[in-house]
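Thread: CAAX amino terminal protease family protein, structure

OP (GT): Posting the sequence first so everyone is looking at the same thing. Length is 256 residues per the record. Can we get the structure tokens written out before standup tomorrow? I want them in the notebook alongside the other entries.
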Amino acid sequence: MIIESRRSWVEQLFVAIIILIIFVFMAFALFDSGEVTYAKARLLFSLIVLFIIYREVGTFKVTKPRVKLSTNLKLWFMIIGISLIVMAWQEQLPSRILLNLNSTTLAENTMFALAAGIFEESLTRGLFFSIFLQNMQYRSRSLKFTRSALYSALIFGSLHLMNLRSGNSGAIIQQIFYAFALGVVLAAIRVTTNTLFWGIGLHFLMDWQPGIASTPSVATSWLPVLLIFGSMLVIGIVYLVKFDHAYEKQSRLTIS
């Protein structure tokens, strides 16, 4: 049922490494070039990456047909949705969006948020997820989706190490943790909806705020971070394990 990618996981890993090298080089080369120029370059690069990843993987889907959700899985998916609403409320997402709509840098903020959503989802939940999933398939590993989600989420969290140039290491450590937790949840949404675009849209909304490119990260209390994102991480893992079991069951029924 897992769709076989156009290229092997080894070839895709090579492409992913090249993309990461170019991204890091571009980020440092254009960081002081001005927000508008940097935003345009990031958005253009992210669209190119999206196209490359579609060419490499051959699809934005994961399985064919989509895995059918039991009542229990639907309930857990609803819990994921509730956890996202709680996170949005805690992070004051609605008010941030309203502030952004009245911001003088709305265009730049929109380009940066789109670039982040498209690039990070395409690379981590798209290409790296495909790499790990193919590897799990090749090695006949159990819990393929759960493992692939965790590994790709680790890469997603690690990408935020680049923000260490802001100098606030405490804030970046928090970013890495909640990016990892969000990455697991976004992977759950990816495999459930069987597309990359729901994740891109949610990622865009979470990043769509005033000063996304220029406002330095500030460390907050660890308690709300652990409560909200720790809970999301646990919920995401439980859901993915259940999703894996549902996939294996449906695969056996298809074969028989």
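GT: Both are above now. Quick notes for whoever picks this up: Residues 57 and 165 are 33 Å apart (CA to CA). Residues 9-254 form one domain.
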